[in-house]
User: Fold this.
Amino acid sequence: MKKVSIYRPTTVDEAMQILTEHGTQASVYAGGTDLLIRLKNRLEQAPSFLVDIKKIDHLRYIKEDAQGGVEIGAATKISELAESKLLAEKYPMLVEAVNKISSPELRNASTIAGDLLQEVWCQYLRGGYSCWRNGGYLCYGAIGDNSYYHSAMGGRLCYAVYPGDAATALIPYDARAKLATPQGEKELLIEQLVPGDMQVDGKIQSHVVRHNEILTSVVIPPPRPAFKASFEKLRPRGVWDFAMASCAMGLELNGKTIEDARVVFGGISGKPYRETVVEAFLKGKTLNDDLGEQAVAIALANAAPLKYNATKIDMAKGLLASGIARLSA
Amino acid sequence: MQNIKALLLEPVGCLAEFPSAPFHEIAVRFFGRKGKASPSASRTYWHLLNLMEAAPLDAEQRAIAETMELEAVAQATLYEDVCPMLGELKSMGVSVSIATSLSRAAVREFINRNSLGDLLMGTCSRDDVGGVKSAPLVHALGSNPPEQAIFLADTVEGIKAARTAGVLPILMMNDPDEAQRLETHKPAGGVVSLHEIPDFIRLVAAQNQRG
Assistant:
């Protein structure tokens, strides 16, 4: 394991100060299910200074806000989301999705912020190859085995897929992330938080959080009365694995008429991929069984699969059809 | 890697899809090459350059070869990401030059046909330097330090030419199987498409700024 120094601040401001002091050599440490593996594998990109935020109060909670929405503290465990009655009542699709994240053991350790901001799981990066995210200047996934962990929707230097499920499931709810920054608090939509393959502080990463910023909470707006949502995920095994493809869908209905739609694919792109073409197609349509076939026909038209991963697009389209079928039942 | 200030480009294979037949025909006619043309124009071209380097053509042969190269240029199809990339690099202040082992007439025709003149800082052909492979690269560098220049390559010979000139070979990885084979020759980096080059240069600059 790479040698590290660990700080244990007790406030967010103190944590930001330490992060600022050590620049990109430092990283926030909470659940550790991603970070500790990168350290164990001695990745060049792994930090040398860990800022353990577990001692900071008020980062681990799920609470209803005054408007009827819900705020989730950054250090809240995925298992706590999975078992939350409040979330199950207000956002059942989110609970379904987080129950499909990894294994029960890992859900007990990993946090919502960690899931949102996790590093990609490309086997070349994790195997210590000198790729774009690990001190090198080449994407091995683009030319090697790209059947699982790589984008079928094109890329920008790095072709790894964004691996998180929580972001994919939060986007249909128009959820936002709150960040503490040295300049004050800022709020971003989840899709703005993880736009994929960004150059931030001289590094390629899936999210826009700078080295001295801390994600403090996720805020989900109040549930809309006629909103129906579904989450589908395909993975090689029933537990543990990341998505080969996933699809989160949210439909706002007026009777059987779709007033508004959100369609987000996971596991196929460098970001949770919002399919706005299908969203526009669904608006104004009557929700029925035939709609799935029509939506599939126009979905993911700009796919750009690599040599071995065209099947991800077929899987994603299948999930779209089954999601619509589920919601129309 | 130091900040990148210059990009050197060989049109064959890196900027346009060329036919391999004209290059094969030159090899057959003047060097007695046997067999069928490779489907890869880059491989055929760089193999021809090996032959030309070993036994330079005389004046009459050069004239005939030039005619065949013009034929190849006429059939070449520019990749769609070339002009956007060159425009972006120009706005970033990166010096972009053609450094090619084609004849002067062929490269001029290539630039004119594809309206690339305004996007390039300079051009260097084999006729300008009296040599092929690394010779045009060294000349095209001008005052740019070689360690701050990159050369796009899609063949082993291209990687070697860059190394000989002291510039950084960057692999064009548009054919994954070929790229996997070429990666074993340890290029300094690789891109899947030309639109990644500006991002590449920006990332290196940001890394150096970070320290």
